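Handoff note, outgoing to incoming analyst
You'll be picking up this chain. Sequence as last confirmed:
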Amino acid sequence: WCLRATRARRVAPGALNAENIGASAGEESEGPGKAEPSPLPARESSKLLAFLTAFGRFSRPHTVLGTAVSICSVSLLALRAPADLNARFALGLAQALSAALCMNVAIVGLNQLYDIEIDKVNKPYLPLASGDFTVRTGRAIVLSTAAVSLLIGFASGSSPLLATLTTSLLLGIAYSTDLPLLRWKRFPFLAAACILAVRAVIVQLGFFSHMAAALAGPATAASEAAAATMAAGANPRGLFQSLLPPGIEWTLALGFGTSFMTLFSIVIALFKDLPDIQGDREAGLKTMSVRLGPQRIFNACIALLATAYAAACAIGCFWCGPAWSRLVTVACHAALGATLLARSRSVQVSSAQSLYAFYMLIWKLFYAEYLLIPFIR
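Most recent structure output, in case you need it:
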């Protein structure tokens, strides 16, 4: 018994020391200020970052920026005086921007939901085509953003805003949805008409009407909207006036913006299919690019934009009133037109990458035009 006790005492200190060493090491590694961070927060942050990155691609940033710039530009046309930069203007602009950006995401997302197989060829970086988003996630984003947009429009109490959002959504559904009598993107004329209606007409007149009403207040919206447009310095045109909502009258800036953006929207509608010819052909989509070939469509787009810039210079010379307005209109449009023609010479029509890069330049020219429209007086 004594020998066993002695052996136990000899072994115990070693065992205790090992346990103490392990405990000490554990205390050092798990003690305050020295513990290794849990990997869970890092994983959650990584997932959130991956989702936001994919959502950015899903929203098509160039269209989001185009929507934001166009709404801000058109909203400035409703200003009558510096004093109109007030709380009403800020609230109306916030309503228009938030609702329009949500609707933009819903419409481009809907198109991606029905174009997954095509995008695997043409745009494999998009989240639905690449597998970064599931179809269920895409549907949830589309439904939620469309619902939020319409809710903002309804809560604003602005009939022009709600009508603009609803019409844009209906055209987006008709353009993309693969149902009987729909999916208008299969038909070149209807596809171009959808884009032209939204970018050239609905954005100009719908959001202008909303901002004019927001500045005037609910009681005097119609009469104040007319005063706001007349203050911009142009006489109404009877033929075009009959096409406008009550209380909205043509100004030089509003008429120019609508006309110029009509040509620009036709170009965007035609050119957007040029980089996608391969996938569209495989999917059986008879776009104008597939029917007529890339070179003809490219030349037609350059000719349309060159005509638009030449017309803008002429308007600046002969119709703009103030000298500063003439100078800005002529000089800037001449510079933009020269940039367009210079860059067009380096485009390789047989290269989808080269065509897409030039397509992004067209969008930059689109943004620049909206920055110039408020200077036309």
